[in-house]
Amino acid sequence: MSLAAEAEISQAPLVSLRHIGKTFSNGTVALHDMSLDIQSGEFVSLLGPSGCGKSTVLRIIAGLGHATTGRMTWADGENGPAANAQDHHISFVFQEPTLMPWATVFGNVWLPLRLKGATKAEARDRVMEALAMVGLEAFETAYPRELSGGMKMRVSIARALVTQPRLLLMDEPFAALDEITRFKLNNDLLDLWQRFGFTVIFVTHSVFESVYLSNRIVVMAARPGRVVEDIPVNAPYPRGDEFRTSETYNAFCRTASESLHAAMAGSEDGHG
User: Fold this and answer.
1) Mean pLDDT by 10 residues, the chain (272 residues)
2) Domains (ranges, CATH) in the chain?
3) What is the pTM of this model?
4) Any residues with CB less than 8 A from the CB of 179 and at least 6 apart, and which?
5) Which positions ≥6 away from 264 have C-beta within 8 Å?
């Protein structure tokens, strides 16, 4: 990581969650007393079992849902929930690519800029730049049905990056992909993060993926969701196949796995 990026991380949190609770209308308590600081420039993974509230946290940060209790504060001092996600320069990548099947690759990536009033001509340079970032500049006229699963996810990532976000929220984006494609997109995502310096909050239930990608892993317990451990991954970037087979990687995987299993056991006993 660059010195500039390290200096940026040392500043006040980009977003701060304090004692967040979320109870759905059916009475399900999704989150309880969830507190978390995200520093600018970090790559943070939320790791936990299915149903632990990881996606709910992302949706609250994005303004797609509201906390029942607690407070969210941004680095500019403005309190959440962030219904005005555009003001905070947030982009969201969902587990499914959610592409418009009737639109070309270009049209899908243009969509966020189009919603802001940009014409196709005005948006062209930005869209093509975003497609180049994910290696799809030659596929601008293709339709989603003509793309592989990995290529569809690249389009989804390009659509998220075309707005030049400060914060990229990713909800298990590679979970449905085969292992080879997943590894490739992990590497591509890290390359983009290092090049452009945005902040990433990445939801996963894969210990291996969380260790490979992150400089911090936030382990969550289920029923109700809350932070049970915050693990720094003090391994240098860039990371590649050598890191995946290193003792350092294996040690971090063991630490994260033990924390996850402890959190799951605690959840079965109640509030842990």
Assistant:
1) 50 90 92 94 93 92 92 74 58 92 97 94 96 95 96 96 94 93 94 94 95 97 89 95 95 96 69 40
2) 3-89+165-241 (3.40.50.300), 98-164 (no CATH)
3) 0.90
4) none
5) 49, 221, 222
